[in-house]
Structures are given as structure tokens and as C-alpha cells.
Amino acid sequence: NIEMGYHGALKILRESPHVTAIFALTDAIAVGVLHVASELGLKVPQDLSVVGFDDILLASHVIPRLTTVAQPVEKIGMKATELLLQQIRNPDLLSEVITLGTHLVIRDSTAPPR
To answer: What is the pLDDT of residues 72-107, one digit of tens each?
Structure first.
């Protein structure tokens, strides 16, 4: 959540002020990182690049707009439901590994390191 990103980034940036980028586990956590960067006077992306994961709606509405890794949430839900129904119909069905692609959505929160 946002609070976890805030506290985690605060700890990282206080202990390691030379850090130039943070890749957050989720976009919500990345929003917390953006908040800390602002409080510490860091400019994003000039001083610190921030990347999230999920591409939630908020990612394109924060300032700066968040660079993120988008995942096909709707496809994940559909495939999970399909697999669950198959498992219910046939409990002896072997488990299956499914890989769905992601893609990088480059916005305003990242820049090459100086």
C-alpha cells in the first residue's frame, strides 16, 4: 500500500542517499515512494527514478506520471476462473503453469542515470 512505500522508501533513502532508482512491488507502493521523494526534496526523475508494477488508474494521474509494468489483469482473472472451473469438473487434472505477458509503460517518473 502507499504507506508501506512511504516508510520503505524513507528508510532506503535515509540509509543510502546515493540510490538513483526504486522499482516498487506495486504502483500503490510507488506512489508512497513519490511522496517521500518530494518530502526529501528529491526531483523525480532527475534525482530518483521510480517504477511501479500493475498500471493501475492512479499511475497515470500522479505527478509525475508513473512509469510502470502493466499486466493483463482481466486476462489473469479470466484464465484463473477457467482453470478453477476445469479443476472443479476434473479434480484429478494436473496443475498447469500459465504465463501471460507484461509490458513497460514509460511515463514521466524515470530518466537515465546521471
So the answer is: 999 999 999 999 999 999 999 888 889 999 999 999
State residue 103 phi and psi, 5-degree precision.
-150, 150
Burial 73-98 (b: 16+ CB within 10 A, else e): eeeeeeeeeeeeeeeeeeeeeeeeee
Q: What is the mean pLDDT of the chain?
A: 95
- Angle (deg, nearest 10), helices 2-15 and 27-39: 50
Strands 49-54 and 67-70: parallel
61 burial via Cβ count (<10 Å: 0-12, 13-18, 19+): exposed
Other CB atoms within 10 Å distance of the CB of residue 4: 14
How many Cα atoms sit within 13 Å of 68 on the Cβ side? Answer: 24
What DSSP state is assigned to residue 65?
A: P
